[in-house]
Design goal:
single chain, alpha/beta, two-stranded parallel sheet
Length: 322
């Protein structure tokens, strides 16, 4: 009998790639969709998959909606990808971020405990939980102290911790994937990678003149969402619940990203990129670089995309679009 997977945040970047991956593996996929007034856009990433997926309206802050679908579906695996996912915006809406990213996970765990306690749970944790903490070799790994520097990171640290607590206290199969930054052509346009690549293409076409960004010297470990959703499924296929860093182990600055993207379009980024203080975080996270040794050794996972291959795929997408 096919496994049943329930995905929250199924309409997002990771949700859409995870859906494709699980369908390819023969899963039956169910998803929770948050109501949006513009229905034409809220499921666009799933347009070609909808006939193969059971979608239900609900919200992480409405436990009754979670109760209903878990009681009906009785999933084998649960992937919680739902979140207010923009770090900078978490400063503008900190209460909503905390409610969704922290209390929403607690709601899910309580529903699982009541309706399907044998289900395996994946929680989308984040490298933002580390903040500016790093080990002596400059890397962040599962044992690195966590000192988040944003409301988003703080809320994610709560959800990471409560997953570990329910794992031990109630013997739930609850695991965390500590994912570093991951992008794709499906990434939202207000995230920095898409913002840079999309606007560089528009500038090259004469449809835009400048690009405003925040701190150009922030460094991130960027991978591809396709690689990272494979890791999610491997985490729940492991023989015991655990926590795993998913990363590439390579770091680049936003300035590096600008240089590479604009140069591929035969442009000099310095002619077009401007720093606008409104895009600078109140407390900056300067550097992220993940050590995914544990995931490679225990799960047998490794990324197929490198930084330049990721950029090339996103550039190709926007060049075709415009």
């Amino acid at each position: 009998m096919a496994k049943k997977a329930f995905i929250t945040g199924i309409t997002g970047q990771d949700g859409s790639y995870l859906t494709e991956h699980l369908l390819d593996l023969g899963y039956n996929v169910y998803g929770l969709v948050r109501r949006n007034s513009v229905t034409e856009h809220q499921q666009s990433r799933l347009e070609n998959l909808k006939k193969n997926v059971d979608l239900t309206y609900g919200d992480m802050l409405d436990q009754s909606s979670i109760d209903k679908i878990l009681n009906r579906v009785q999933p084998d695996e649960i992937y919680n990808l739902a979140a207010q996912s923009h770090v900078r915006i978490s400063y503008d809406i900190p209460q909503f971020t905390a409610q969704t990213n922290a209390l929403g996970v607690l709601n899910l765990l309580e529903s699982v405990k009541m309706h399907c306690p044998s289900a395996r749970i994946y929680q989308a944790s984040s490298s933002e939980m580390f903040g500016n903490s790093r080990d002596s070799d400059g890397m962040q790994r599962e044992t690195t102290p966590m000192h988040p520097v944003s409301p988003y990171g703080c809320a994610k640290l709560f959800s990471y911790s409560v997953i570990r607590n329910y794992r031990k206290a109630f013997k739930l199969f609850a695991s965390n994937g500590i994912l570093f930054n991951h992008e794709s052509p499906r990434r939202g346009s207000n995230f920095v990678t898409t913002k840079i690549i999309k606007n560089a293409v528009l500038i090259s076409k004469g449809k835009a003149k400048i690009l405003e960004l925040g701190n150009l010297d922030s460094k991130r470990d960027w991978g591809h969402s396709k690689d990272y959703v494979r890791a999610m499924q491997l985490i729940l296929s492991h023989d015991k619940p655990d926590d795993f860093v998913i990363s590439t182990g390579q770091t680049n600055s936003i300035r590096d990203l600008c240089k590479i993207v604009f140069s591929k379009l035969n442009l000099d980024y310095e002619d077009y990129v401007r720093v606008n203080p409104k895009y600078v975080r109140p407390e900056e996270l300067s550097y992220l670089c993940g050590d995914c040794t544990k995931s490679k050794e225990i799960l047998g996972w490794k990324p197929e995309y490198n930084f330049e291959k990721l950029i090339d795929e996103m550039l190709e997408f926007f060049l075709k679009q415009y």
